[in-house]
Design brief:
Elements lengths: L1 E7 L4 E9 H18 L12 H7 L2 H21 L12 E7 L3 E9 L3 E3 L20 H12 L4 E4 L10 E10 L2 E14 L9 H5 L5 E8 L12 E15 L5 H7 L7 H34 L2 E3 L2 H21 L4 H8 L3 H29 L5 H15 L3 H8 L2 H19 L3
Antiparallel strand pairs: 1-2, 2-4, 3-4, 5-11, 6-10, 7-8, 7-10, 9-10
Helix pairs in contact: 1-3, 4-7, 6-7, 7-10, 7-13, 8-10, 11-13
Pfam family, one: FKBP_C
Catalytic activity: [protein]-peptidylproline (omega=180) = [protein]-peptidylproline (omega=0)
Function: Involved in protein export. Acts as a chaperone by maintaining the newly synthesized protein in an open conformation. Functions as a peptidyl-prolyl cis-trans isomerase.
Length: about 425
């Protein structure tokens, strides 16, 4: 195989050309003929059993040369990736046969060029926005987390008075009305709700407290960020409470800790300490990620990055598809959404432009830092990561390795963590 690379700088396009000729192409053509011949159907003969001279009448160059091209495509791409070149792809290539004959085949792999970046300083950055905090876990936060564990073993019993209180489980039918008219999605039968779980819109569960078995009415106002047709509208719900159950949670003691069957936790004190550490770790990681995102924004601002318009447009396409999925989750089609909001495709894409540009720039900056600093997980770090995952999910390390997460993915995750730690520790 022969390789050639070139840039169409004005278009932001790169082209890798691979030529296959000689014995390699002759063998591919021969295999292509055999493959097509075996699939040709001729009346009166079983597939692949017709006489050679009859088969050859149907064996056109277009068919067998196309089969030959398909057989070498993957190998040609692997060959191209092994070559040393400064023409680097930024998107998946589109393979196209450009010249095909009995003697040779020329394949072109077209792709967006990797944008050029001249990265600014990424260490020692100081800014009033870059603040590192020390976190604590409050008693309320620890209590809430432990109560979530207690919920696993909650028992329920019918309330004698049938009056709804916070923490109870109520089963009820409901139907909502705005200006006396029932609205779409505002009806439910045998709906089960833990009062205080904040599953419903603000105010709904508070209004239920004190209600008894049977029919009643409650009034609420939809929040501003609700669906456009109900945003900030006042609504009346007709409720029919069918059952009210008191929930009994287990005591906060060593038995609870043992029943949870968590690694290395046998006493309630150990459970409290574990929960406390988890809360602090989560707060710290959230703060660290926000800190690093601010660092990346500053690096982007101080770097010279040339982004091809095609790359931005493709990323906008990706973000648009994600946006469509979110709209669909709200039980709306894009046509309905655009009608309700008055937005056009062009307006939505214009709003996504900034996010698309920032996402690409962020990738280029972090990729540059990663390559400059040559992050590489050690074997010990990989094993430690697997051990933590095994302990977290209560499964064997070998099962995670062989079934869930191959080592290449674990290494990538560790490198991402090393990158975040590096930018956090070396800035602010």
């Amino acid at each position: 195989m022969k390789f050639n690379a070139k840039k169409l700088v004005d278009q932001g396009i790169g082209i890798w050309t691979v030529t296959i000729d000689g014995n390699e192409w002759e063998n591919a053509v021969k295999k292509g003929k055999n493959k097509v011949a075996a699939s040709i159907k001729i009346d009166g003969f079983r597939e692949g059993k017709a006489p050679k001279e009859m088969v050859e009448k149907y064996l056109t160059p277009v068919k067998y040369l196309n089969a030959a091209v398909q057989s070498v495509m993957a190998k040609a791409w692997d060959f191209a990736k092994e070559q040393k070149t400064d023409v680097e792809p930024f998107s998946s290539p589109t393979p196209t046969p450009t010249k095909i004959s009995e003697k040779s085949c020329e394949l072109e792999f077209r792709f967006d060029l990797k944008p050029e970046i001249e990265i600014g300083e990424y260490k020692g950055i100081k800014s009033k926005d870059l603040v590192k905090e020390d976190f604590k876990a409050t008693k309320e936060e620890i209590e809430t987390a432990i109560n979530q564990y207690r919920e696993r073993f909650a028992l329920e019993k019918d309330k004698e008075d049938g009056v709804i209180a916070k923490g109870d489980v109520a089963v009820f039918d409901f139907e909502g009305f705005v200006d006396g008219v029932a609205f779409k999605g505002g009806k439910g039968l045998d709906f089960r709700l833990v009062i205080g779980s904040n599953q419903m819109i603000p105010g709904f569960e508070d209004e239920l407290i004190g209600k008894k078995l049977g029919e009643s009415k409650i009034n609420v106002t939809f929040p501003k960020d609700y669906t456009p047709e109900l945003s900030e509208k006042k609504a009346e719900f007709v409720i029919n409470v069918k059952s009210v159950k008191e929930r009994i949670l287990p005591e906060k003691d060593d038995e609870l800790a043992k029943d949870l069957n968590l690694p290395n936790i046998k006493t309630y004190k150990e459970l409290e300490n574990s929960v406390k550490e988890q809360i602090i770790t989560q707060k710290t990681q959230t703060s660290k990620n926000a800190f690093v995102n601010k660092v990346i924004d500053i690096i982007i601002e101080n770097s010279k990055i040339q982004l091809p318009k095609s790359a931005i447009n493709k990323e906008i396409d990706n973000l648009y598809k994600e946006f469509e999925a979110r709209v669909a989750n709200e039980k709306l089609t894009m046509k309905e959404y655009k009608k309700k909001t008055g937005l056009t495709d062009e307006a939505i894409r214009a709003e996504l432009f900034g996010d698309a540009k920032r996402k690409i720039c962020s990738y280029l900056v972090t990729d540059k830092v990663r390559n400059n600093e040559k992050f590489e997980p050690t074997k010990e770090q990989v094993e430690e990561k697997y051990s933590k995952l095994a302990a977290q999910f209560g499964i064997e390390v070998d099962y995670i390795k062989n079934t869930i997460l191959p080592e290449v993915q674990v290494r990538e995750e560790i490198i991402r963590e090393q990158l975040v730690d590096f930018l956090y520790e070396n800035n602010g």
